[in-house]
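Exercise (ungraded).
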Amino acid sequence: MASEKRLEVVTCTAPVNIAVIKYWGKRDEELILPINSSLSVTLHQDQLKTTTTAAISRDFTEDRIWLNGREEDAGQPRLQACLREIRRLARKRRSDGHEDPLPLSLSYKVHVASVNNFPTAAGLASSAAGYACLAYALARVYGVESDLSEVARRGSGSACRSLYGGFVEWQMGERADGKDSIARQVAPESHWPELRVLILVVSTERKPTGSTAGMQTSVETSALLRFRAEALVPARMAEMTRCVRERDFQAFGQLTMKDSNQFHATCLDTFPPISYLSDTSRRVIHLVHRFNAHHRRTKAAYTFDAGANAVIFTLDDAVAEFVAAVRHSFPPELNGDKFLKGLPVEPVLLSDELKAALGADRTPGGIKYIIATRVGPGPQVLDDPGAHLLGPDGLPKAAA
Amino acid sequence: MASEKRLEVVTCTAPVNIAVIKYWGKRDEELILPINSSLSVTLHQDQLKTTTTAAISRDFTEDRIWLNGREEDAGQPRLQACLREIRRLARKRRSDGHEDPLPLSLSYKVHVASVNNFPTAAGLASSAAGYACLAYALARVYGVESDLSEVARRGSGSACRSLYGGFVEWQMGERADGKDSIARQVAPESHWPELRVLILVVSTERKPTGSTAGMQTSVETSALLRFRAEALVPARMAEMTRCVRERDFQAFGQLTMKDSNQFHATCLDTFPPISYLSDTSRRVIHLVHRFNAHHRRTKAAYTFDAGANAVIFTLDDAVAEFVAAVRHSFPPELNGDKFLKGLPVEPVLLSDELKAALGADRTPGGIKYIIATRVGPGPQVLDDPGAHLLGPDGLPKAAA
């Protein structure tokens, strides 16, 4: 019998994704099965990524996890569900007859360290990237090659969409056991090179209602949500898929805005009502509509998740002018060069007509900063051993 | 043949009404027919009323109207529709064989003067009270005794609900000609004497989207609104009627809050989206939910129309504590005794537990003032000639 390995370490990176047809509400809380399908855009890891090192060793006495340098509770149900699922897949693989030269014992404990290259306080949903990364890393460790949607999903529903680059759908599935509730790529990251994404990080007021509890209350109390899921989303998924495949920005942008608004409408129809949109969010919405009205076409589109940050889609020929419009209506309080992060955006002047169209309202400091990014690839393995976040002892390396 | 009268003057008062099952969206723009029924509470005229004097004379050369002392455009389509309708009813009455001892010529022009005893800037929908008052006054002038729903409705949809006191429904009707789209009283003003109404007038930011255009866009673009009107409102109307008839405040309050939220949800599902709820509105919503959670029962309920002002329902045994809670979370910037208008409310201290439940958030000056009122009667005729707003010459009397 082949001897077992003492320690296996894998480091991966995974992206953040932003849904343009929103997921909100589960039909199964344990298996994390949604009441409707969703479609997302994977953002580029140069600007936003989670890096996760997973280490498995017979010397570890318990599962442990560090997030952004801080140890968290590894007994947390979502994490344990994730681990159970990957171990189940690994066990299945072996019983299907695959031979590993040095199989790891599935009873070994796992150490996980994960860091984001973007601030957690930015309110960007990092659990999707985090669980996708974890699933991907553990799959590499255990040699699992099957679909990882379930592994990622059990950690955080939308994490399955972060398993692919480009444009990704999470098919809701019909089976009660969730085996057909999987993510698949609709188009690769190279499909629409002109598409740009701006994340407008707004000044945070109150901590928003957590999405797990929020969507549960929505499912229980909102008749509008049920109608949306059953009667409206299927056609929207088909239309959004068409928009992406045909690179129809006009239609893509309008449907993106409408779906964001409809999601937030169902939150308001929840009891007690959930409001993720702040006054600043609404001002961003107004700015986009005025920007588009001025141009007489949809040149920018907003979407908001369960928080006040705005995600704006434009094509590359409109980014500079849109950023200038944001600076105009939300004059930065920060030093100018800290306001814009990520991809470079050239400074341009606004025309007088556009300034007039945007109106006199100013909200100084309403937007803390902007991250400019684009569509990006799915998870990656890092081959460089220097990239590991855990040392040979399985503990986090000292911060650089 | 009886000679015609030279001048006829009638002065009436009419109330404001607040919908608890909301009207939003027309199936006929010209006849003002709604896509769903609605149910409202008539507020007491001691606190809020419109006073209207209608004068008709053969000496008048044109229709003229003064609102709060300022002359407005009498050619305005809604006003003209109102006048045409009342004249049609008067003509019909005569052709049905009713004899008036001194019939007025239906070709005479009309002068109308109307004043509110509440500030227009308060954003309280005064067109309902105004058109109800006009319809009622003109009916008295012309001796029309039939149902005035259509007359009032043609001026402003919800005005038909101001034709009655107490609790009023506006049945949407099914006929294309709108003859069955009428208001009727569900319960009189004496039915629920413990019910109180607080109007929280918030500091106005931007002028909100007008409701006529807003609801038209909603009908055109929101699938959630169509579903609400067809599938949800009928059962809500039945349930709200039950709540009123049985004086079930728990259920009345919850359904009121849910319907307000659902109305605003359909506004958000409109494209471009309409947001009537400001950050202050949302803070009021949070306050009510925390107040109720503290008491473990629904003791206060909010509803919002097409604007940021909050209307709160409570029973009389909760008013004082709720007003104290508002003062606590929205400390008045005004001199204390200008903050509370209308019915007297005794000052009470908040318990420490309630203060803790309300949380640390303070919004100084967020609420400009409160009007405390209750359920009230329908339109009234003023018999005192001194009450006329127009002199014998048909022109506004000098302001007192």
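Further reading is listed at the end of the chapter. For now, observe: Residues 223-245 of chain B form the longest helix (23 residues). The mean pLDDT of chain B is 92.
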